[in-house]
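Hi V.,

You were right to ask for the full record rather than a summary. Here it is.
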Amino acid sequence: MKVLLVDDEKHVRDAIRLLVNWQQHGIDTILEAPDGESATELIARHRPEIIMTDMMMPIMNGVKLLEWLQANAPDSKTIVISGHDDFSLLRHTLKYGGTDYILKPIDPDQLNEALDKAIQAWNKEEELRQTNRELNIEMNTIKPMYWDKLLSGMIAEPSTYDSVAEQLDKALHLNRNISECRVAILSLDTMERSVKNKFSQNMDLLFFSLINICNEFLTTDGRGYAFRHWHSETEIVLLLWKDLLSAEAYLEKINEGMRTTLHSRVDFGIGRVHAFPADLTLSYQEARDALRKRNLKAKETWIHSMLNPAKSPQPALTFSHYEEKINLAIRSGSIEQIEEVIQLWMDSVKQSEVITLEQLDHWWREYSVMKRRFVQRFFSGGSEDKVKQMLSDEPTSVIVPLDEHGILSLSQWQQELTRSIVHMSKLLLENQQKDKNVIFEIAEYLEKHYHEDVTLQDIAGRFYLSREYISRKFKQEFEVNLSDYLGQIRMSKAKVLLRNPHLRISQVAEMVGYQDEKYFSKVFKKLEGITPNEYRKTANSI
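Predicted structure:
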């Protein structure tokens, strides 16, 4: 905390220094000034919390200094130390915010008490100021979200305008006299990847930056207001209500601001002029359609309107026509085959004169469904959680790869698609190898524990797999079911034991996992064609 001593007599300033226990009061800086004018310079530079001043000084006296303090440093606390017992001076002190009026010669106790009182008053007011600062910060954080939600609600349901008209007038100067509007949309779907990469760890900051740039232009001229669309993960909506016929030119101006600030332009879709608020939704839908139906293979403009639609796309090209070819390429595990089939798809895409965001979104949804189908088919033993985990690296919506000119980069798209499918193929091969390994582990387990009462349920529990999965994979690998495989092991071991004439048939049965001698004999005859006794006689006679 800082204190400023203002008195034209140095010995008075020195006396004050000696009479106060500054450390006890938490004061670490003591400044001095010989008159009011010098004091104002120090106050402006150092902002002391406490000011002790004389009233009768040259150049600028204490009376003028108090008036200056009320106008320029109202938060500081002032203690007057004067040699004049004058009521008019006391009244002036109280009028301009002084906390105490002390007479010379100075009483130490009175001075320290006055200082303590001034510090307490300053601390109390500072707590209140800090609370207000925090509230302001919180309100400034909440306000944009409030307007986002309110205006997004109006886009969806224009009739809500009447209930919020007064708020919109006071805050945004959108008053009831406004009868027409246009809606423009900026979408992050097709922003240059370099820009999105810069903000990849904080997309909220990207939204904040874009909206701020838009509103620097819109609110200055009272043309409109930009906000984040509450019902979309990628849209910023610009509600325009002034100079509507020149809106496209003004969006170009905003885009130049984007280029200067972010080193990148953006695409805007804009709807036609419509009645406000009744047809607000219609203008929004037109702006959205203009963006989604623009040709991504060419860059003729950054501002897209349904008044100048792109050429109609050619007959629909569907990704699902290539599903079986992709399926075979994935199963082959060959990167070359995967690249070939993706090249076939891309060759078909390149023949289209027009590619719209709408088409890309459709193809992406087709691919997402196809990929989920592949994962469920290839990893059928896995749980739904495992399927979700394997699909978690995919984005929740289409990502449009653009080059530095804002044109769809088919080469980038081809690379991304190839990478995704190669990754799936590698996962499939790894899973197949893992399946094969675990099935051989089960077979090895049976070889070692054939003499125990082994069931499929026991195996499933031991290896943390379902019975159905084990049965299917075991049959695929060994071409016999698990129970027959176990029976073959037991019979093989039994034939060796039967050669020992000292072992009874019941002992042999028990040693290979059968508690019932009759059941053992029945199984043995079924598999070998003769009874255990007949086998013993035949084997021992050779």
